[in-house]
Amino acid sequence: MIRIGIFGYGNLGRGVECAVKQNKDMELVAVFTRRDPSTVKILSEGVDVFHADDVLSFKDKIDVMILCGGSATDLPKQTPYLAQYFNVVDSFDTHAKIPEHFENVDTSSRKSGKIGLISVGWDPGMFSLNRALGGSILVDGNDYTFWGKGVSQGHSDAIRRVDGVLDGKQYTVPVDSALEAVRNGKNPTLSTREKHTRECYVVAKDGADKELIEKTIKEMPNYFSDYDTTVNFISQEELNEKHSGIPHGGFVIRSGKTGKDLEHTHIIEYSLKLDSNPEFTASVIVAYARAAYRMNKEGMVGAKTVFDVAPCYISPMSNEEMRKKLL
Amino acid sequence: MIRIGIFGYGNLGRGVECAVKQNKDMELVAVFTRRDPSTVKILSEGVDVFHADDVLSFKDKIDVMILCGGSATDLPKQTPYLAQYFNVVDSFDTHAKIPEHFENVDTSSRKSGKIGLISVGWDPGMFSLNRALGGSILVDGNDYTFWGKGVSQGHSDAIRRVDGVLDGKQYTVPVDSALEAVRNGKNPTLSTREKHTRECYVVAKDGADKELIEKTIKEMPNYFSDYDTTVNFISQEELNEKHSGIPHGGFVIRSGKTGKDLEHTHIIEYSLKLDSNPEFTASVIVAYARAAYRMNKEGMVGAKTVFDVAPCYISPMSNEEMRKKLL
Questions:
Q1: How far is CA A117 from CA A83, A281, A306, B318, in A?
Q2: What is the ipTM of this complex?
Q3: Least crowded by CB within 10 Å, which of A149, A286, B2, B59?
Q4: What tens digit of pLDDT does each residue of A21-55 get?
């Protein structure tokens, strides 16, 4: 059994807890939180919640620590710290800071002789993997990544900070005609506006100026001004009823050419349609936790990403079984 | 530069030749054929064609030998033989015999201290990889593989063997409604007939009994009797004009559930739309030839499949560049 610890218990932590339960070669040993542990109720019976400060006493009781904190402030500190003591997996997703994060985790993991697997999930993660595979196979070509339809937590937060807004949710939606052009091998050059639209569902406070709210949202720099944005005002009840999920998904498409005169076009498309973004991310992380455990057992150490992990390490099957059933 | 040899020069060999040219870190050293080399014209200038019997004299001049023979009789002998002397990559695709082929290649490769990478292409190959990834991430779920729309060489050959048939081509076509049901997470149980239809384009000889040809094709066991098959009689000119390409493609879909009570459904879909089946297969093989070279340089030996290859080995980018640009 691979002994798993969860560090941080929000949506992602709960997702990891569920995913561990789905994998017969894993067991959840403990959950760690910065809150008062007595206030944190988890789903698993017989598993205790501990304060984050107690984590080092589990040094020999946990094979892989899964970090479920945020990328803005938690993971840049937590992952390098815990990598000094544990095999770790995180879902660090601040793309621009990945090289720096990698270096920090690498230093810690090499000291401890452990594996530090970073930026695991679907983007970064499975989408990155597909960009790598597609570009390696179809050397002459273009990459396209579309996100959605799905809830963007960051954009939903931005809406909720607007004056007069009580609650809100934002969906990122890929533009169908752009997707079709890519799928048909047209290799279009697409602006930000041409790739995605943004759909907002907003609950306004009583007496708030809805026109002003709509204008403020649509003109918000970075978040909305570069997109065609629609703002729909709805009641809190409707928001709760129809928009409480956290669905997401997207598409990674590689369009490339081969042949004597590059006369043949090929399209590789990878897509995800997810009912629950955190639960799917958690499922990817848990599969890669198996890889971290196995790779470390074979003597590998240091920071790794999905690019460094051979697929056999994440599968619950043996290599023989994989060749027989999946190849 | 990675020095490549091509062993066998048909559609796949030509595809490999084109793909090597697209990769700046590779050079084609020689092509080997069992025919009289003087009768084989290749596309590359300055590269010579040699008889297969002369291959061992290239032992120290070629880093990776790419085998482009057939799975029925060529590869079961050629791959284990050449693995005694070279890093090799093949596209062995007789699924049921893969475990045996793997063992044979493994024995040879371990003796020579080389890598023997087998069953590389898209199925087996990229489709296998996606079945492995999907099943590892969504543990509770179902796999679906659909092929097409594309030309099946085996079925086209079967048509051409029918009495009264001059020429013919067969397309395997996935059934749209089945694809949609899978995409919508319905986890249908699908019979052979429900997954694919078969479209035949047939040129009949003058005076041939078309009704009998159609009946013979539709009732042919293994090839057509389990499918809804349509037979279209056309002229040789139309066949040449509209059906001379070798397109193919397909879909690997994983549908799975997560959550406390498995209440959330997720769909992972990988699809290919290929203008040229052999050229795409060749492009995959060439990317994995890079992996064979690099992995052997790091001291790895023995038979491998796509499951054993970390994605970083197939990419022309450095690990740093991959993390920066693709993660």
A1: 9, 14, 8, 18
A2: 0.96
A3: B59
A4: 999 999 999 999 999 999 999 999 999 999 999 99
